[in-house]
Model the fold of this input.
Amino acid sequence: MNRIREIRRKKGITGPELAAKLDITPQYLYGFEKETRTLSAEMASRIASIFEVSVDYLLGRTDESEGTRYIPEWATSRDIRDFKKILEEDEPVMFDGMPISPEDKEKIKRVMEAMFWDAKEKNKKTYGRNKTEE
Done:
């Protein structure tokens, strides 16, 4: 979990500031950073969301640069614009008539992101891509 400390420092966020955002104590956070405490999937997702990185990047499973989400290399500028438009809609997300938490909304966005790129890739393989779209 050394990457948590690395990203936190790059972003200029102190341990106590990050701990406050996570609603945990700084000591609890430092346990993740020193790898003396096990990081739950939920906590990893919350930290990744704050830093705007993937959980895989946070856990050191990928070396994709921080602050970027997965965008396939075949995606055109139009594809990226369309996807950003979907994500930027700021309407409240409801489940069973109740608004969901920001953390759950972020999880849903990440699932939608994976589904969007998968569907886009299948569509382009099936119908081809017009190179003039870029």
In short: The chain has seven helices and two strands. The chain has two domains: 2-58, 77-133. The longest strand covers residues 94-95. Helices lie at 2-10, 15-22, 26-33, 41-51, 55-58, 77-88, 102-127.
